[in-house]
Design brief:
With about 575 residues, the protein is an alpha+beta fold. The chain has 18 helices and 23 strands.
Length: about 575
């Protein structure tokens, strides 16, 4: 049998591998210096508990830590704020032993009181809008979290909880800084963008130094950080992380090419522009494989009523379309994934058909319902369901003779997403749908999605991961990110009820093979019912200046998951 020829992508991966593993290491890491990155949106707050968007987590991930952390290279759980743990034979009781000597960046000691406070007073507080509550609640039962002594915390679980150690990466927040806000029922508005940086207190490797809206935010080295390198060096090595807030990804690219920033996440269409300039620009391009995230179209299926206006959140005429599975199937057949990968990604992309990325490993199910791009099939599905052009004006009407017209949005800072939306809009209009495209600022879009529910259809994405249960806030019918119809009191459909059951059963099943059967079924249901209509996955392409040591880029966590270990070569 002839050997398989090496494709350009395979060669790229091989060269990146050789660069990483064969480049001589510097004798000793050096302290000091800055890394300059970009963000396409201001953070919405500095409150990790209430955060639902990456613009906030981009900042807080450097400031706060959990009891455990995930090694982004091995994908194994490792100790963080807890130095070790024990579990009872029945799997219900977990005891964590905290690291002695850890301090918050204001000098106060980190203790078991902070862990108990984070869970009992924040995550399990009904007055606080926490996304984490869904993850740490099983069949409406919470975990019992109690202090044993200053450095020991005991968790008593109502049932076995398969991803428990992974879930313990949950950020821990300081009781001494936030207890008053909780008591006064002001926590939801605490640590907003007007908060003095010195008030944002964490145990992480960096702390917030300054924030200038629309311009930049800067994090500086936490001199009290507990972690040390294998050689015994106090971490982190870098003095500063500077995020420049840019209008869009094109602006970020220009700043990278001009040498103003040290890193850019590449889109496939930019590869031919960037790759030939590696030597001249003194940077390296890495391909870490399929992204863990997702890109999808979602229609607003919320049948609730606005308590202030007493009017439905969604126009009842539109609601009938969005709730119609035939309507959504027709849209699925109008998603030209090959065109998106060819035009927007230069071939560095993957068609996505289910919630889990191909990079997720065992829990990825390739055997789901797939929708080939076929406008004739889409038109037939619509016509059979009664959506036809009755008056010859070029637009289809529903069975009640309403013109099918709706607003279609995405966030303005992500040009690739805007172009995906443009491709989809063009094909939907060729089906006779009148689609009004709106490009909105990211935080405005998030507010519509999570608060006002004032939207029709959106192109959006989620970050994803290897543990299905951590998507419970999206997939359980009560979840705050169950975006097509969030926070349902009871499941609106039988299929949503079944997904609820799967997430309850899956988290209690310790046999990974049995868990896979359940989560495979979940992905099949999603592919059949199409609450999210998937588009394409990016390849994780990075361009990074060659001036940094200890880089270990991965698809799971990107190039800077070990920011505390990264240093500037001298």
């Amino acid at each position: 049998m002839a050997p398989t020829p090496l494709t350009p992508k395979v060669l790229l991966v091989a060269l990146a591998f050789l660069f990483f593993f064969l480049t001589p290491a510097h004798a000793k890491p050096s302290y000091g210096g800055s890394i300059v990155l970009t963000s396409t949106s201001d953070p919405k707050s500095f409150n990790d508990i209430t955060a639902k968007e990456t613009s906030t987590r981009e900042v807080t991930s450097h400031i706060f830590e959990g009891l455990t952390t995930m090694n982004a290279v091995t994908l194994q759980v490792e100790p963080a704020l807890a130095e070790r743990w024990e579990v009872s034979e029945d799997g219900h009781t977990w005891t964590f032993y905290l690291r002695p000597g850890v301090k918050w960046n204001d000098g106060e000691p980190f203790t078991a009181d902070d862990v108990v406070f984070t869970f009992n007073d924040l995550i399990y507080n009904d007055d606080i809008a926490s996304s984490s509550r869904d993850i740490f609640t099983i069949e409406d039962k919470t975990f019992k979290v109690e202090k044993v002594d200053d450095l020991t915390v005991r968790f008593t679980l109502p049932v076995k909880f398969a991803p428990f150690l992974r879930a313990m990466s949950q950020a821990i927040l300081p009781k001494h800084k936030l207890a008053k806000a909780v008591a006064e029922k002001k926590f939801n508005f605490t640590w907003g963008l007007d908060t003095p940086p010195s008030e944002i207190v964490g145990t992480g490797a960096f702390k917030l130094s300054s924030y200038r809206p629309g311009e930049r935010f800067v994090l500086v080295r936490n001199p009290l950080y507990w972690k040390r390198s294998k050689e015994g060096d106090a971490l982190p090595y870098l003095d500063r992380i500077v995020y420049l807030i840019v209008q869009n990804l094109d602006t970020a690219m220009l700043k990278f090419l001009d040498g103003e920033v040290d890193y850019i996440g590449l889109r496939g269409m930019e590869y031919p522009l960037i790759k030939p300039n590696e030597r001249k620009g003194n940077f390296t391009v890495y391909d870490a494989g399929p992204d863990f995230g997702s890109s999808f179209v979602v229609f607003n299926q919320n049948t609730g009523v606005n308590p202030k206006t007493q009017k439905p959140f969604v126009d009842p005429v539109k609601s009938k379309w969005f709730l119609d599975i035939n309507f959504r199937r027709a849209v699925a057949h109008a998603i030209d994934k090959n065109k998106m990968m060819e035009i927007l990604m230069n071939g560095f992309g993957y068609p996505q058909d289910s919630d889990m990325s191909k990079s997720a490993g065992v829990f990825y199910n390739p055997n789901v319902e797939k929708y080939d791009y076929d406008l004739l099939k889409a038109k037939k599905i619509l016509a059979d369901a009664g959506y036809i052009d009755r008056n010859g004006d070029g637009w289809i009407e529903d069975p009640e003779e309403h013109t099918v017209e709706f607003n279609f949005s995405t966030n303005s800072g992500n040009n690739e997403r805007v172009q995906i939306a443009s491709i989809i809009r063009h094909d939907l209009q060729s089906l006779g749908m009148k689609v009004n495209f709106l490009s909105l600022e990211f935080n405005t879009l998030v507010t519509k999605l999570n608060s006002t529910f004032d939207w029709d259809a959106i192109v959006l994405g989620l970050t994803g991961g290897i543990e299905p249960h951590f998507g419970k806030n999206v997939w359980h019918s009560t979840g705050g990110l169950h975006m097509w119809y969030p926070m349902q009191k009871t499941p609106a459909t039988d299929w949503e009820k079944r997904i609820d059951e799967i997430f309850i059963q899956g988290v209690q099943e310790l046999d990974e093979n049995k868990r896979k059967v359940l989560y495979d079924e979940f992905q099949v249901i999603v592919s059949q019912q199409l609450p999210l209509i998937y588009t394409v996955l990016n390849s994780d392409l990075y361009a990074i200046r060659n001036r940094f040591g200890n880089l270990k880029p991965t698809s799971y966590a990107g190039p800077f998951h070990n920011m505390e270990e990264i240093y500037i070569n001298k």
